[in-house]
Amino acid sequence: MDVGSRSPLLDLFRRGEVARDLRLLAAQGALAPRAFEQLALLILLTDDNDPAVATRAAATLDALPADALRAFLARPEAAELRAFFLARGVQPATVPAASGTDPLVDTSGDLPVIPEAEDSDPESASRVLSTLPIMDRVKLAMKGTREQRSQLIRDPNKMVAAAVLTSPKLTDAEVESFAKMANVSEEVLRVIGTNRNWLKNYGVMLALAKNPKTPLALSMQYLHRLNERDTKMLSIDRNVPEVLRLAARKVIVKSLK
């Protein structure tokens, strides 16, 4: 069953791009940063093609702490999940949980111990992180430091980057810095560029428009939302695709008529 909830992590599972071992870990409650993602992911995995994953997800749902589950279901963000649990006889509590930040159950264990980098250079630290097993990188992406997220967002594994973008610790300032990066994947920019909440931040939208790796279809959508000064700068920016640069010039010419 798919409750339709959206997040970078959930979308990756929904598209079937997650290996079996990670799906099994998620079915045990180990890969969700918040209660919302955890419940939506467990519901999704109850229909997994692998019987072991589906059975494990169902068992994890059955073992969730009842009071904590009912309290979370009373929160506004849990609206899409309620029908599934009502069918299982679980009613929302009268008083909602004070926070939905933490997962209802966490089997991921402690954060890994990071080996010392040879020096303080960020690239050296990034190389150290790249040697860790994927599960450790995912844990750090969700629960680690800002510096670790800035390195792991460039990880070639989609799961790691999705975990960064789903982290409860992620700030708008970090998202803006990711949108400016020329060494992140196009998929990272696409995820950022289709998130309405992040696009409310003008700095994020401008960074995406100026990033040559942003899919052109997205960049063109932002063009008419830029202010005059930034549109002029974009019209002479040789780093962006020519189509976007010419479109920016047309906007400028039209505004002068």
List keywords for this structure.
single chain, 257 residues, mainly alpha, 3 domains, 0% strand, globular
Description:
The chain is mostly helical and 257 residues long. It folds into three domains: 80 residues, no CATH class; 49 residues, no CATH class; 82 residues. 58% of the residues lie in helices and 0% in strands. The protein is built from 17 helices and no strands. Helix 1 packs parallel to helix 3, helix 3 packs across helix 4 and helix 16 crosses helix 17. The longest helix has 15 residues. The N and C termini lie far apart (54 Å).
Strand content: under 5%
The total count of strands amounts to: 0
N/C terminus separation: 54 Å
Number of domains: 3
Listing every helix as H and every strand as E from the N terminus to the C terminus, the arrangement reads HHHHHHHHHHHHHHHHH
